[in-house]
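Per reviewer request, we include the raw input and output of the structure prediction for the construct analysed in the revised manuscript.
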Amino acid sequence: MAIWRKWSRPKTESKYPARLTMHQLWMVSLSAPVSRDKDASRTTLYPFTRIDDAKAEAWLAQQWEITAPEQLLGRLGRLANTGYRAMAQRRLGVAPLAWDVALYVDISRRGFACGMLTEPDTWTLLKNIVPAVAGTYASWQEYADHYLLGRQVWRDNLEAARGDGEGLPAPQTVSDAHLRSLLDPANRTSPWNQAPWEAISNPDRQRRGR
């Protein structure tokens, strides 16, 4: 029954048929490292391939204790201004902005999915972080490297806090493999190949095909 309900949900494109522009896809693609689930959409603002607002709402509550728009905006503000990179800076002398940005975009998209953010407000939030990201990195490879660095520091901190290792997120090797797939030039489904890094520095345009 649960499987039937999943596949009975409408596809995201049926509710949001407008295809993202190159700039929009680039911004959404900042969260691609986080989006490993099979039902994750990496080419729409909505985070899933099928409409599931309740899933987005539950995830924000369980993972981030976000149950209201003001909590969501507060969390986004902290990720944009300091985030986890402050901890990495103290430990390693490097502040991996990419890790915080990937989380920022992922949370924004889920906030949009469950109705805490309007579509225009979500795009505005994503646009606000573009200058910092584009000014820090010169390629998706650099972005991926810093994402993995930030994730490792975050995971190490969790492991030290929990001690027994139970309930930890996926091993770093899982993220490594996912990032390699996104960076693979032969992977035509990778949003990073569909929206090259330099696209954000060029005039925006409509994308062709599907």
